[in-house]
Amino acid sequence: MTVTGIKFPYGYDVVGSLLRPAVLKDARAQFAAGKIDAEQLQTVQRAETKRVVDQQVALGLKAVTDGEFNRSWWHLDFLWGLTGVGHYDYHQSYKFHGSQTRTDNADLIGKVAFNPEHPFFTSFQYLQSLVPAGVTVKQTIPSPTMLFRDNRSDNWATYYETWSDYLDDLAQAYHDTIQHFYDLGCRYIQLDDTTWAFLISKLNETATDAAAHQKYVTLATDAVRVINQLLAGLPDDLTVTTHICRGNFKSTYLFSGGYDDVADYLGQLHYDGLFLEYDSDRAGDFTPLRKIWHGDPDKRLVLGLITSKFAELEDPAVIKARIQAAAQQVPLANLALSTQSGLVNAMWLCLDGRRQHVNRRATVGKTQTSQTDCYRRLGGLN
Description:
The chain has 382 residues and is of the alpha/beta class. Helix content is 35%, strand content 16%. The relative contact order is 0.15.
């Protein structure tokens, strides 16, 4: 089958986030303590962003990110920037296996709408200024489904007559936000989404309880509706992908289970590409890929076969075999390769003081540089 419309994701691509360097974490702590101001924090943030962008470009990546250094959370900072979304203390940690997080959360404080002063726009413009010709900026933001969960929409009825009206506003806010990124020059944007992994878990847990199960079926249906609604009418030369994340915090995870229970829903999404975590047995086999791809010649599924959680390099022969197994479900031309999630997150992986590159056809390329230097380049380690 000939692929006619794919530009992104590339055969080897990145999910987006990189490990925060100590200097940036220290600056955020000082800012929170009132020891430095916002301008001083931004100076550190921009210096570290430039460093990791330069390193990604030097590594030959065709699409680069800012490492998500412009935010404290992968999702909440963006949500707080929307009109109608506020901040409060949740007093609960997200339930990662073996680790705890801070207790910030978001909630509705009005009708949700596009914010033309969203701080992510300024961050994007700075990132764009760092990237040379021939390299594309990849902008990452959380999916709108992240407002469906963890009590963030509990008070929707305070501001809306119907739940449907709320979903319409949420889709429009995202559509307008993405359109503004496009107007600023963005051509590649990714919506990060843990909701589908959450649904995998919940749909399994409630399989014998019809009433509880229906709650999560409705959530899945609403997710498809909002995502496709926000994507409708965006420019043809804008690539929008999603990363189906299972949670990744200090090398721990939130959710387990294969994609079978959500494959039909994922297959309905009008994304140009889907990044799928496949670095452990928790993700199941490749059978659902056929439904997720849905026979779309212009859609690429990115196999997250390489783990970002541990330093050990996968056996290239095993990666080749897994790609060939996936190609039994989806044409090879519609597959790409990445790490399963962010953090040390790119296609260059280090072991025994050497670097190896594996592309979507799983050929092993040149080796060079030290393990420490490679992780510095990819993860911002010092």
